[in-house]
C-alpha cells in the first residue's frame, strides 16, 4: 500500500459505507428513499390512470406497459388465469416497489439501493408474502388439505415421506421467505459494493497515487461505468425475480396438486 | 492500522441483521403503496381493459351479425331467383301450349273457312251455269227463229239442203241443252 500511496492510505469500502450517519434525528438515507419510492410510484400510477383512454397516449402506454408486465407476464403466468385477479395489486406493488428501490442504486445523487439493507426485503417477504401465500392456500384447500397437499404430495412411496416431509416443512415454512429476501438483498449489497470499490479506488488513484500511476484511474472509472450498466440490468432482473417468486409461491399454494 | 481495522470492524453493524426501524418503515410504506394501487390504480386499469375487451368483442359480434345478415340476404335472393326461374319456365311452357292450341284452332278455323268458301263457290258456279243455260236457251230459240225466218225468207230453192240444215241445227240444239237439263 505504501508503494501506491504518496499521501493517505487506501481504505477499501466495506459494510460501514452502507450505514451512513442519519440525515436528521434517527432518519437515515434508506428510510428517506423508501418514502420517496412510494411517492414516485403512487404519483406515477395515479397520474397515468387519472384519465385512461382506449387509445393510449405515450405516458399511458408506459404505465400500461408496467401494469401489463406485472399483471400478465408475472401474476397471470404464475397463478393461472382463473385465480390471479385478486393478487394483481400485490404483485404490481411488489414489482414496482422493488424496481424503484433497486434502481435508486444507479440514479445520480441518490445512488443507494434501498434493498441493500436487509430489513426492507425481509419486511416484504416475511410479513407480506409469507402470510399471503399460506393464507391463500389455507383458504382454498382448508388447513388440513393445504398441509397435506404441501407436505405429503401424492404419488410417492410411503417411506420417502420420512425424508420429504421435513424438507418440505423446512423449505415452505422456513426458508422460502428468507431466501427470497436474501436473494435481492445480496445482489443489491454486492452490486453497490463493487461500484464503491471501482469508484473510490479510481478516485484514490487519481488523487493520491504517484504521477505515473494516475492514468490507471481511467480503467477504474471505465469499469465503474461498465458495472453501472450491469447493475442496472441486475436491479431490474432482481425486481422481476422477487415479484415472480412471490407470485410463484402464491400459485403453488393455490394449485390443486403438484 | 490493525487495531484501527479491528476497531472499525467492531463498530460496523452486521449487514444481515435487520434494523427493526427499517422493517417497520418498509412494511408500512409498502402497505401504503399497496393500498393506493389496490384502491385507485388497479380498478381503473381493469375498467379500461374491460372496456377495451368489450369494444373489441362488440366489434367482432357486430361483424358476425352483419355477415349472418348478408348470408341470409344472399340466401333470400337466391331463393327469389330460383322462384323467378321456375315461374319463367312455367310461363314459357304455358305459352307454348297455348300457342299450340291457338295454332290448332286457327288451322281448324281456316280449314272450315276454306271448305265453306269452296262450297259457296261451287254453288255459285252451279247457279251461274244454270242461269247461263237458261239465258242461252232463250237466245237460241230466238236466234233459231230469226235464222229460220231469214233462211225461209231468202230462198227455198234447195229444199233438201235447207231441210238438212234445220235438222242438224235442231239436233245440235238438243245436244247442247241436254246437259243443261241434267
How is this structure best described in words?
The complex is a heterodimer of chains A (258) and B (182). Chain A is mainly α and 258 residues long. Helix content of chain A is 69%, strand content 0%. Chain A has seven helices and no strands. The radius of gyration of chain A is 23 Å and the shape is globular. By secondary structure, chain B is mainly α. Chain B has one domain (23-181). Chain B has helices at 2-11, 20-154, 159-181. In chain B, helix 2 (20-154) packs antiparallel against helix 3 (159-181). Mean pLDDT of chain B is 84; it is low at 1-10. Chain A binds chain B through residues 9, 14-16, 18-19, 26, 30-31, 34-35, 37-38, 41-42, 45-46, 49, 52, 54, 64, 67, 71, 85, 88-90, 92-94, 96-97, 116-124, 127-128, 182, 185, 189, and chain B through 1, 8, 11-27, 29-34, 36-38, 40-42, 44-48, 51-52, 55.
Q: What is the SS-derived class of chain B?
A: mainly alpha
Termini distance of chain A?
Answer: 58 Å
Q: What is the helix content of chain B?
A: over 70%
Q: Which stretches of chain A are poorly predicted, pLDDT < 50 over at least 5 residues? A: 1-6
Q: Largest beta sheet of chain B, briefly? A: none
**Structural domain count of chain A:** 1
Q: Helix tally of chain A?
A: 7
Q: What's the number of helices of chain B? A: 3
Amino acid at each position: 500500500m505504501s508503494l501506491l500511496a504518496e499521501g493517505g492510505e487506501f481504505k477499501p469500502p466495506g459494510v460501514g459505507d452502507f450505514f451512513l450517519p442519519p440525515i436528521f434525528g434517527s432518519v437515515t438515507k434508506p428510510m428517506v428513499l423508501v418514502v420517496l419510492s412510494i411517492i414516485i410510484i403512487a404519483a406515477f400510477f395515479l397520474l397515468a390512470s387519472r384519465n385512461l383512454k382506449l387509445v393510449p397516449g405515450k405516458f399511458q402506454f408506459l404505465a400500461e406497459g408496467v401494469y401489463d408486465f406485472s399483471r400478465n407476464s408475472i401474476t397471470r403466468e404464475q397463478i393461472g388465469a382463473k385465480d390471479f385477479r385478486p393478487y394483481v395489486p400485490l404483485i404490481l406493488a411488489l414489482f414496482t416497489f422493488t424496481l424503484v428501490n433497486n434502481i435508486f442504486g444507479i440514479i445520480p445523487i441518490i445512488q443507494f439501493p434501498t434493498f441493500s439493507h436487509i430489513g426492507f426485503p425481509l419486511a416484504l417477504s416475511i410479513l407480506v408474502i409469507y402470510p399471503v401465500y399460506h393464507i391463500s392456500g389455507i383458504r382454498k384447500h382448508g388447513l388440513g388439505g393445504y398441509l397435506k397437499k404441501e407436505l405429503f404430495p401424492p404419488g410417492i412411496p410411503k417411506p420417502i415421506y420420512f425424508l420429504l416431509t421435513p424438507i418440505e416443512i423446512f423449505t415452505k415454512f422456513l426458508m422460502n421467505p428468507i431466501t427470497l429476501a436474501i436473494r435481492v438483498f445480496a445482489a443489491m449489497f454486492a452490486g453497490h459494493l463493487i461500484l464503491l470499490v471501482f469508484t473510490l479506488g479510481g478516485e484514490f488513484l487519481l488523487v493520491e497515487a504517484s504521477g505515473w500511476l494516475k492514468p490507471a484511474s481511467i480503467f477504474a472509472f471505465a469499469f465503474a461505468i461498465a458495472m453501472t450498466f450491469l447493475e442496472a440490468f441486475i436491479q431490474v432482473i432482481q425486481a422481476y425475480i422477487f415479484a415472480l417468486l412471490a407470485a410463484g409461491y402464491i400459485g403453488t399454494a393455490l394449485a390443486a396438486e403438484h | 492500522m490493525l487495531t484501527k481495522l479491528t476497531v472499525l470492524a467492531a463498530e460496523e453493524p452486521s449487514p444481515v441483521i435487520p434494523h427493526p426501524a427499517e422493517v417497520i418503515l418498509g412494511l408500512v410504506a409498502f402497505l401504503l403503496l399497496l393500498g393506493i394501487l389496490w384502491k385507485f390504480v388497479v380498478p381503473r386499469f381493469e375498467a379500461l381493459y374491460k372496456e377495451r375487451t368489450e369494444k373489441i368483442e362488440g366489434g367482432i359480434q357486430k361483424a358476425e351479425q352483419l355477415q349472418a345478415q348478408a348470408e341470409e340476404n344472399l340466401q333470400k335472393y337466391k331463393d327469389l331467383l330460383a322462384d323467378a326461374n321456375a315461374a319463367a319456365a312455367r310461363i314459357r311452357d304455358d305459352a307454348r301450349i297455348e300457342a299450340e292450341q291457338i295454332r290448332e284452332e286457327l288451322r281448324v278455323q281456316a280449314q272450315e273457312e276454306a271448305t265453306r268458301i269452296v262450297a259457296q263457290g261451287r254453288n255459285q258456279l252451279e247457279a251461274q251455269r244454270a242461269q247461263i243455260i237458261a239465258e242461252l236457251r232463250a237466245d237460241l230459240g230466238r236466234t233459231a227463229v230469226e235464222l229460220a225466218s231469214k233462211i225461209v225468207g231468202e230462198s227455198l230453192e234447195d229444199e233438201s239442203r235447207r231441210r238438212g240444215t234445220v235438222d242438224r241445227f235442231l239436233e245440235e240444239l238438243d245436244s247442247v241443252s241436254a246437259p243443261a237439263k241434267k
